[in-house]
Amino acid sequence: MSALLEVKDLNAWFDLDGKRELHAVQGVSFALDPGERLGLVGESGCGKTTTVLGLLGLLPPSASVAGRVLLNGVDILAGGEETIRPHRWVDLAIVFQGAMNALNPVKTVGSQIVEVLELHERARGRAAWRRSGELLESVGIPADRASRFPHEFSGGMRQRAAIAMALACNPSVLIADEPTTALDVMVQAQILELLDSLCRDFGLALLLVTHDLPVVAELCDRAAVMYAGEIVEHGPVDALYHDPRHPYTRLLFAATPDLYGEGVPASIPGAPPRLDLPLVGCPFHTRCDRAFVRCKDERPSLRDLGEGRSAACHLNDVVAEVGA
Amino acid sequence: MSHNGNRPLIAVEDLVVRYPVLRGLTGTITRRPQQYVHAVEGVSFTVARGELVALVGESGCGKTTTAQAVLRLVEPVSGRIEFDGGEITGLQARALRPLRRRMQMIYQDPYESLDPRLKVRAAVEEPLLIHGLGGTKAQRRERVGDALSRVELNPPELFLERYPHELSGGQRQRVAIAASIVLQPDLLVADEPVSMLDVSVRAGILNLLDRLREGGLGILMITHDLSTAARFADRIAVMYLGRIVEEGPAQEVVRDPQHPYTKALLSVVPRRDPRERSRPEILSGEAPDAVRIPSGCRFHPRCPIAIADCKQIDPALEPAGAGAGHQAACIRV
User: Fold this and answer.
1) Domain range holding A222?
2) Given an 8 Å threshold on Cβ–Cβ distance, is B199 in contact with A213?
3) pLDDT value of position A102
4) What is the spatial distance between Cα B46 and Cα B209, in angstroms, rounded to a whole number?
């Protein structure tokens, strides 16, 4: 049985002035089953957005991508744009952070959804308008609002409309890149509830890209934590919080304030390494509170730890409890 | 705070701020009645020395306007603002200037609040020059170095000659804070001071503000992030549509919320621990716009426990909950 979506050893790098390269994504692998929700978490510059743009073939020409993206077992990355295009929006749809940027300000919301439906030959004319009304209803917007312009919508409504547009072709995977970051907490809760019901009721698989650990803890089954272009830990969200196997995961949770949490959040000193220079040793070792000699010289690889977990940390060879 | 007998650093009483809605040419000719955005409608609170008060609420609730009015950056329609015992509401610009030094602001985006052409040294020195403070060049240099060490940019010499683009987001925010505290203010107003920063550096900035507070600074922090307010504020005031609907010691407000809006807001905050997944009480829709404020209690159209009286009675803040100094504006509490 192959997964619905499987990303294998994805690499993406940018050419800087012809001499240097910035290795933004380094050997990222993950898989998604129908109805599953995976969080891709990390801070700015960790490569999470480049990962999703890379797997959708949406990176600018200055970028190169290598690796495999298997949709139902078939590699869609192998043939470049020609093999990706039939699947983009059709099987793999994406919702971005700034919904205003995804919507055309001079066209009504309904006509933009109709355009998608007609472009992909899902419906035409009156049937397409009816379908666009249904799609809006499915994300909680009354169908009669289809004739409104994006500026007449609030931030939350725009994000709903962008989700409705992404759902136009009945995709099997929805990729949401920081879908609630610019929204208020109550509106965020509404959008998270919507995404939750789309996964539960329609078996949509969700790849949620965010910097916000609590949002992932709230919505996702599993999460992959990215640092300096690679996945450093991957596992069920419960295990990541209660028994982290990479110090970065533990420190990131410790830096996140919690409503009822005890103690004061602590920042992680230092900064991530530059990705345009060769990395020696573990990319996190300069900021790690548990680094030892080996971390400086030898780069740890992502190792399987059983129970659907993996981590890239030498401590897993030395002691049983990295998180302790 | 007033509770311990000292007079508050800042005391705001019944503050009202309205912005006129542009009527346009046709509106003016047809004498359409002038409408107002009721941004702040009767807000009262105090901030003491050594106290961090968080003003929380969703966008459009009036929290930023309140902060701007406190700094006299917008003119209130009515109300009274006292700074260190003296009323500043009616002061002219000239009389206000010496007070400006004592009230400083930190903005959300350190990428925009720092002049990209100014080196760190110049950015931190500039407020001293503007206020004609700091004495000789050597003395100013010392104060700049001192401010940089207070924001933990150590050693200062390493940062003095750098430009903002050579600094990380967290370092830029520290420079912005250094430029505020170099004047040795009494009050710091911080508008979403960490929301643009990465999670791993946010705590560092908040802990820094906490240490400045311990050093006697009064801090008014505007934030939409209840988890941050819960951890770092002494008191929390929750705003909805221009009003404070609940106010009290941070832990009281978070652990024993009284107003239905506060309860709903707290219920939707995602938690770190997946086992503590929130049982959200999701309010439908969004806050109505501040031009057409609902009658009675302004929260009643979205309130899960509203009764007929709520459409008529505009509730005032009254003592609520078990803890001292905890108030809520709801007739059902």
Assistant:
1) 5-91+171-252
2) yes
3) 78
4) 18
Quick check: pTM over 0.80? yes
Options 3.40.50.300, 3.40.630.30, 3.50.50.60, 3.40.30.10; CATH for B2-102+185-328 is 3.40.50.300
CB contact under 8 A, B231 and A261: yes
The two three-digit tokens of residue B304, written as one number: 């899960």
- Contact indicator for A80, A56 with CB cutoff of 8 Å: no
pLDDT over 80 (residue A321): no
CATH (domain of A191): 3.40.50.300
Chain A contact present for B224, CB below 8 A:
yes
Rg of chain B, C-alpha, whole Å: 21
Is A271 part of a structural domain of the chain?
no
Distance CA A250, CA A247 (A): 5
Contacts of B207 in chain A (CB under 8 A): 264-267
Confidence (pLDDT) at A324: 46
Cα gap B37→B293, rounded to integer Å? 9
Q: Which of A224, A229, A275 is nearest to A252 (CA)?
A: A224
Determine contact, residues B246/B253, Cβ cutoff 8 Å: yes
Residue A297 located in a structural domain: no
Among B residues 154-173, those touching chain A with beta carbons less than 8 Å apart: 168, 170
Which residues contact residue B153 at a Cβ distance below 8 angstroms, ignoring those fewer than 6 apart?
B120, B159, B171, B174, B175, B178
pLDDT confidence of B252, banded at 50, 70, 90? Answer: very high
CB-CB under 8 Å, B271 with A218: yes
Which of helix, strand or coil describes residue A15?
A: strand
Q: Is residue A12 included in any domain, yes or no?
A: yes
A267 domain residue, yes or no = no
Residue B5 has pLDDT above 60, yes or no: no
Looking at the structure of chain A, the number of domains it has is 1
Closest CA to A247 of A281, A294, A216, A284: A284
**Domain spans, chain B:** 2-102+185-328
